Amino acid sequence: MRLSQMLFVTLRDDPADAEIPSHKLLLRAGYIRRIGSGIYAYLPLMWRVLQKVSQIVRQEMNATGAQECLLPQLQPADLWKESGRWDTYTKAEGIMFSLIDRREQQLGLGPTHEEVITAIARDMIRSYRQLPLHLYQLQTKFRDEIRPRFGLMRGREFIMKDGYSFHVDEASLKETYQDMYQAYSNMLRRSGLAFRAVEADSGAIGGSGSTEFMVLAEAGEDEVLFTEDGKYAANVEKAVSLPADAEPSRFTTYEKRDTPGTETIDKLCQFLKCSPTQLVKNVLYQTVYDNGITVLVLVSIRGDQEVNEVKLQNELTKLASNYGAKTIIALDVPNVETQQTWAAKSLPLGYIAPDIADEYITANKQIHPKFVRLADKTAVELKNFVTGANETGYHVVGANWSAQFQLSENVVDVRKARSGDRALHNPEQTLQSARGIEVGHIFQLGTKYSLSMGASYTNEQGEEKPLFMGCYGVGVSRLAQSAVEQSYDKDGIIWPVAIAPYHAIVTIPNINDAQQVEIAEKLYTELNQAGIETLLDDRDERAGVKFKDADLIGIPYRIVTGRAIANGKVEVVERATRKSQEIVIDEVKSTLKQSIAAAIEVKN
Ligand code: ATP
Ligand code: MG
């Protein structure tokens, strides 16, 4: 491709609305263009990158025996009502765009395809002989994200590869899951990314596992905890660890203390000269179940620990049936305003004890009359602890479970693991923290959708059984941008060779020099014919501008038909290292072929 004929517009300055380097660079280098909030045009250079990533994804998927298909993006609401997700997706989370057609039928724009694929499996899979089966697609997904940001990282329209597998049992599902683990690792390695596979939260679906593939980068929205020995890595949402030991309490007798102005843990510890590990703090949440019932939640946890809201949400989802509900649609710390909607009298905030009376709640049809009380394991282990006295300005010290406070029947792990904690598998290892961009997620779904939507098969004994299911997603557009987030310098993008839009760019420093032009044209043709994807910068611009642009768009090799042509050579510059060599014109093709093959092969 000739730059003179391309829609090639680069910006000198950082666009105002871009926050992270990859977003700025893709905009500046003319790869993408913002059309609306979370909506981007993939311009020709970007489209080539996306095609390359897609190709790697296809190759790895096909190698596992999965088959490509294409499912509809317009999805009838009825399917989502069958699975029970219509209301959560359109109302509670509101992530799904929905519309009504001319026949007054409700439709959604596909954010994901479990419902569609399960409907197909229900109709078409009859017998164990058809299993296992794995279908995947590469497609644009729609999600009305609350906070679209960082360009392609979190768009409202983005490209995903999603695959769904069906099995006779869990053992077969686990085999495919393992294959996917390998396939995803291959995809990321081949795309030139530094990544970590981490244990991930599977939500309330239950025991089955899930792994996220995280590209390591400061701009990542996720926190990953891992140990140096490589034996443990998890998303902080899921991570477990051993907390630091609690210091023994010096309050050996139970008494109520006047502790004015100690509504925070810090102030209280200073006032009582004690460690936060000797405290039981009681954190108030409110949750709304899918039947509209609000339940007030009190979590007792050791004073130096924080609540992991993902774990808490999972625990509360398990309790949903106690309230005649199936799932949770909201969980948050009630602010003053929302407290007013249910608090019968003002709460002694900062001084709450595990046994705060249910009388604080004004019950009605929508508000459950009792607190649900959860005790985190870290609180349960404490002896002679300090906690609130349910009265502003007062705490109790030297308290014990079973003596002054009844221990909740809901003892749970809702503690947030953090860097510096000791690892469970080996307490000598401490957890370290890194930021990650989630580019892929593989998931053992089990029978969730097959049960709710009635997708079954007949086994060898002629019995009807629910299908076991897995799903596997990789964000193709997010992955492409992540590569930039991991690889750039002050001058621009440094694409990994395997996914660069072009391998090489031939730059003519002076297009009025006939010899420069002739050699450049010859190389351009020759390289492209040899399968080296090459751009030709034949614009009537100053050499400096051309070099700057080549650096900015990040093409791995730049060939300059400059002074060296007097000696029958051209200058070849490697973008990543800036290593410059003068190479005999006739040898450029073979040298580049080798370098490119080597760069791609290392990753294979
Ligand atoms: P996140 O937690 O980042 O919102 P998710 O858990 O909703 O991601 P999945 O539903 O598992 O994501 O989707 C599979 C993959 O699709 C993700 O791993 C990610 O790479 C990509 N993805 C998800 N949402 C977006 C988005 N809004 N923009 C771009 N890519 C996305
Ligand atoms: Mg999401």
UniProtKB/TrEMBL annotation:
GO terms, molecular function: aminoacyl-tRNA deacylase activity; ATP binding; proline-tRNA ligase activity
Aminoacyl-transfer RNA synthetases class-II family profile domain sequence ranges: 33-496
Localization annotation: Cytoplasm
SUPFAM superfamilies membership: Class II aaRS ABD-related, Class II aaRS and biotin synthetases, YbaK/ProRS associated domain
HAMAP family linked: Pro_tRNA_synth_type1
Native source organism of the sequence: Nostoc minutum NIES-26
Function text: Catalyzes the attachment of proline to tRNA(Pro) in a two-step reaction: proline is first activated by ATP to form Pro-AMP and then transferred to the acceptor end of tRNA(Pro). As ProRS can inadvertently accommodate and process non-cognate amino acids such as alanine and cysteine, to avoid such errors it has two additional distinct editing activities against alanine. One activity is designated as 'pretransfer' editing and involves the tRNA(Pro)-independent hydrolysis of activated Ala-AMP.
Domain of life: Bacteria
GO biological process, one term: prolyl-tRNA aminoacylation
Family: Belongs to the class-II aminoacyl-tRNA synthetase family. ProS type 1 subfamily.
UniProt domain comment: Consists of three domains: the N-terminal catalytic domain, the editing domain and the C-terminal anticodon-binding domain.
Keyword Ribonucleoprotein carried by entry: no
Quaternary state and interactors: Homodimer.
Keyword Ribonucleoprotein appears in the UniProt entry: no
Stored NCBIfam families: PRK09194.1, proS_fam_II
Pfam family membership, one: HGTP_anticodon
Reaction(s) catalysed by this chain's protein: tRNA(Pro) + L-proline + ATP = L-prolyl-tRNA(Pro) + AMP + diphosphate
EC number: 6.1.1.15
Matching InterPro entries: aa-tRNA-synt_IIb, aa-tRNA-synth_II, aa-tRNA-synth_II/BPL/LPL, Anticodon-bd, Anticodon-bd_dom_sf, Pro-tRNA-ligase_IIa, Pro-tRNA-synth_IIa_bac-type, Pro-tRNA-Synthase_IIa_type1
Keywords: Aminoacyl-tRNA synthetase, ATP-binding, Cytoplasm, Ligase, Nucleotide-binding, Protein biosynthesis
GO cellular component: cytosol
Protein's UniProt name: Proline--tRNA ligase
